[in-house]
Specification:
The chain has about 240 residues and is an alpha+beta fold. The chain has 2 domains: about 60 residues, Orthogonal Bundle (Arc Repressor Mutant, subunit A), CATH 1.10.10; about 160 residues, Chorismate lyase-like (Chorismate lyase, 3-Layer(aba) Sandwich). Helix content is about 30%, strand content about 35%. The radius of gyration is 21 Å and the shape is elongated.
């Protein structure tokens, strides 16, 4: 076994046995280099593996910190509103509406929503708080042809509840893309991101039952709070 993997497994044992509980700051790279009598490159490989597997978060200026391995499961394959997610988590949660406006579609929105340039679009920006921390920033754009009216009260509660039960729209499926990005100035202003150097972004184009594209959204997540899960089944392909 390569040396960095041996070190990785030893560090994992310390975390899993609670010798290094959540929020513990790991020894520095230089200290680990001396403890394991190895090169700094080997230590970095071990720490990168820990970060990749969700055991630690590398925080700029603070080093590596053990994170809660009991992250919230965020279902990637489904279409779930924040209100439904919060109910499933059984944790205190609320929504802050940062922006609600009608805007003209620019070239990017034109392509995302398959509409004409300068068509009217609802723009909704909402910070989501879970257990008192702002950990999700949702930026939603709705084609006004399908969503003629929105209010701050609807956005604070559940837009999907309003669309399905009041407007009787049948939301059917979504095309999703998951990327990791550096936080924007808006992310840092509206989320609790001190010390975090990236956000996980789920970009979705959402369709109605008749295949009409009515929504484009970017759901921007603090990386330490969520585990993005899916259910996959292998098809019985006979060749």
């Amino acid at each position: 076994m390569q040396k960095y993997l041996t070190i990785y497994h030893e560090l994992v044992k310390k975390i899993q046995s609670n010798q290094w509980p959540e929020s513990t700051k790991l020894p520095s790279e230089n200290e680990l280099t001396e403890i394991y009598s190895t090169s700094r490159e080997t230590i970095r490989k071990a720490l990168n593996q820990l970060a990749q597997d969700g055991y630690i978060q590398k925080i700029r200026g603070k080093g590596s910190v053990v994170i809660d391995t009991n992250k919230f499961d965020f279902p990637v394959s489904g279409i779930v509103s924040f209100k439904e997610l919060a109910t499933n988590l059984q944790l205190p949660a609320n929504t802050i509406v940062n922006e609600l406006a009608i805007v003209e579609a620019d070239q990017e929105l034109q392509s995302k929503l398959n509409i004409n340039l300068r068509d009217s679009v609802w723009k909704v920006v909402r910070a989501r708080k879970i257990s008192g921390e702002k950990v999700i920033l949702d930026k939603d754009y709705f084609n006004k042809d399908y969503v003629p009216e929105l209010t701050r009260e609807i956005c604070e509660d559940s837009i999907y509840d309003y669309l399905e039960n009041q407007l009787e729209l049948k939301i059917s499926f979504a095309r999703k893309e998951i990327v990791v990005e550096e936080p924007s100035e808006e992310d840092r202003a509206l989320l609790d991101l001190e010390g975090y150097s990236n956000v996980v972004v789920i970009k979705s184009m959402v369709y109605l039952e008749d295949t009409s594209l009515f929504q484009y959204t970017e759901s921007r997540h603090r990386p330490d709070k969520f585990r993005f899960v899916d259910f996959a089944r292998r098809e019985n392909n006979k060749s």
